[in-house]
# Entry
Amino acid sequence: MRTWKITAALVLAAAAVAAGLPAQAGELGALGFGTQVPVRVTTGMYAAPGLSTPRVGTAQVGDNVAAVCRQQDSNGQLMVLGIDRTGRTGSQWSNTAGFIWPFDLDNVPTSLLTCTAFRSYPTLRDTGLYSAPGLSTPRPGTVWAGERFFAICKIPDSNGRRMVLGVAESGRAGVQFANTAGYVWDDDINKSEFGTDSLSDCGVS
# Structure
C-alpha cells in the first residue's frame, strides 16, 4: 500500500501561506498546471473529498489527468484533486475537475499541497461551482458571498470567459460538503486585493 509522506516542500509551502504569500504546487509544463498521473483503473471523480460525495465525472485508463492538490476526507484519507483533460462527447466535458481515490492512480507526487494552501479570495456574490470550465456544465456546488474560495488555476471557457478552478472552504449541512471543488466565473471573484492574472493556467484539452 502506498503511504503519503510530509515533505520539505509541504513545510515550505505552509510557511509561505502563513506569510501571506501565494502557494504553488505541482509543475507547469506543456500540458498545463499540475503533474500528469496515469489512471491505473477507471475511477470516479467526486465533487468533494470523499467517495460518498456527488460524482462529477469519470477518469478512464489512458485519460490525460493532472494531479493538482490533495485534501483529506472525513475518515482522514487523502484524496487527489485532478483535472481530466480528456472529454467524451455527450458524456463528459474536457477539463472536468474532481477528487480521485489516490490508489486508482499511479505516480501521485507526495509533494502535492493541500487544496486549501492556495491563496483564498472572497466572492462578490453567491456563485456557482461548475465541474468543468463553462457555465453550462454541471454545477456541483456554490461559493456563498464573502466566503473563502481557494483559487488554484485559471482557464478560459469555450466563449473566452475566464474561469478559476478552486475549492470552496465552507459546507452547508444537508446541502454541500466542505471543500467542494469546481470552476467559478472570474467576474464573481473579489479581486480588490489580489487579481487572478498571476494564477497558473490550468491547461489544455
In short: Residues 116-201 form a domain with the SH3 type barrels. fold (CATH 2.30.30.40). Residues 1-30 have pLDDT under 50 and may be disordered. The CA atoms of residues 69 and 113 lie 5 Å apart. The longest helix spans residues 8-18.
